[in-house]
């Protein structure tokens, strides 16, 4: 049922479940949602989430013969099981893409050895069936960027229920911090994130994988407190419509603000910057953003917040001006 505490979700385990789900639904036309969820040991919300993905799967990389599966909220219907039950025939380009992807995934750090061996066995079978296409795919390779390794470590930690140590860069504070986290789940909302219980802040936090500078899987077990699953379909941060509106203008060096802060609009400016409109329940919290931006940005409205940010900047400069330069003999490294 909705609202049930979150269990750690693993991408490979979810894929296994969805493959089993296809067979299960084929044999049970019109199956009840609650019965299927109970059979797989998941919530109805998790099942519906899987059903949203299945119609994007099929027997062709070109988009043909997709699974025609839908639900009315009570029962699940699969309208074309016979169409997709025919033996799979891969075109040359499809076989090449599949083999290149399979070989790339098999090299991911953190992949469980049993899964790696199963993938290699499946790859060998596809190679045998692909013939000449297999030779072409052998001349291609894919190199994952650092996020791929981070993803694999997080996925493994979730599967094995182990704690993580990370060094994480926060652009809003322009600092790198070290912290231990108990990972809860991986989510993709524009970028890939890990939702976790942060031992440093003793609160749930969300970390973007491409901002993880370093990661280690620890021996300590992961033990996040029971938390309710948040609906992230509308984004990680969802300001309310009644929250005050703030307008910020940034130069080219401040364009990262539009990437980091949820916003209503981001209009291009002639100098290559952006005019960003956003909502926040605490506009005063953006004064620190204005100080961080310096010459790369300014708060335009509301006027009282713009004045407050300028005053904070003047006070900061005055504090620097009041510091006397130490005598030569007093300098320290």
Question: What does the secondary structure layout of this molecule look like, with pairings?
Answer:
Elements: H1 11-26, E1 31-32, H2 33-40, H3 44-53, E2 69-71, E3 75-78, H4 92-106, H5 113-130, H6 132-137, H7 146-160, E4 162-170, E5 175-189, E6 191-198, E7 203-208, E8 212-221, E9 245-250, H8 256-260, E10 265-268, E11 274-279, H9 287-293, E12 297-301, H10 303-321
Antiparallel strand pairs: 1-3, 2-3, 4-5, 4-8, 5-6, 6-7, 9-11, 9-12, 10-11
Brief rundown of the structure:
This protein has 333 residues and is of the alpha+beta class. It has 10 helices and 12 strands.
Question: Keyphrases for this structure?
Answer:
333 residues; alpha+beta; five-stranded antiparallel sheet; four-stranded antiparallel sheet; 10 helices; 12 strands; 36% helix; elongated; disordered N terminus; disordered C terminus
Describe the structure.
- Helix content is 36%, strand content 23%.
- It is α+β, with helices and mostly antiparallel strands.
- It has a five-stranded antiparallel β-sheet, covered by helices on one side.
- Strand 6 and strand 7 (203-208) form a beta hairpin.
- The longest helix is centred in the last third of the chain and has 19 residues, at 303-321.
- The relative contact order is 0.08.
- Mean pLDDT is 76; it is low at 1-8 and 323-333.
